[in-house]
Amino acid sequence: MFIIPDWPIPKNIKALCTTRQGGVSKAPFDSLNMATHVEDVLSDVMQNRALIQQKANLPSEPVWLNQQHTDIALELTNQSSFAEPVIADASWTQSQNVVCVVMTADCLPILLTDKQGSCVAAIHAGWKGLADKIVSQTIQKMPVEPSELMAWIGPAISARQFEVGQDVFDAFALQSSDNTQFFYQQSTQSSTKFQTVKYLADLPGLVSLEMQKLGLTQIHKSNLCSYEDNEQFFSYRRHGKTGRMASMIWIEESRC
After folding, report:
1. Which end of the chain is less packed: N or C, by CB atoms within 10 Å?
2. pLDDT at residue 191 is higher than 80
3. pLDDT the model gives residue 80
4. Residue 31 in 3-state DSSP?
């Protein structure tokens, strides 16, 4: 039903990533779909969310976002209350028992905490969000030095399966020549009118380099491919119409 990230976080920090198993949704959303925007039966999604709330002993309802591949990182507090999910692709908090969450089905789910356990964040980063610096935007908003942060990169499409075009290569190459090492040219198709170049793109590699440049030294990768593991994970690139996993992180309330 869910995976517990393997990283050396403080004891008061809790994190998890759901799989596609253990829920009630029917195909093609079978079975633990966490998203309400993919045309799944709403009552099934809400039951899936309730199952995770119970099984993971969440301290509160996660603050779900309206993810639109933006560069918006939302601060959450104990008083945060929204009638509808706010458009954003990351959230962060210093408040106890506030659950930051992002949904993915090939994009990068990135969880962050500082070494003291005083601040956490969850980031959704597809290639567009990554190119628009959603990760840097989030880290720079958090009230801790980047060198004090550690990151976990959850299940996402691997470079072996993520074919992209020249436009994606150019978006990152124009930012830094260092980024080109994470693109592997595959083939060139040509005709009398045009030439098409395809690459395999390593999103975990790109985001790791970005975080390293910001000062993070502890970056932990799940090394799980959402595309290749159909049993465990949803994959938009594989199926198109499908569900979403959820990656969550929160600060547990201190107990005397």
Report:
1. C
2. no
3. 78
4. coil
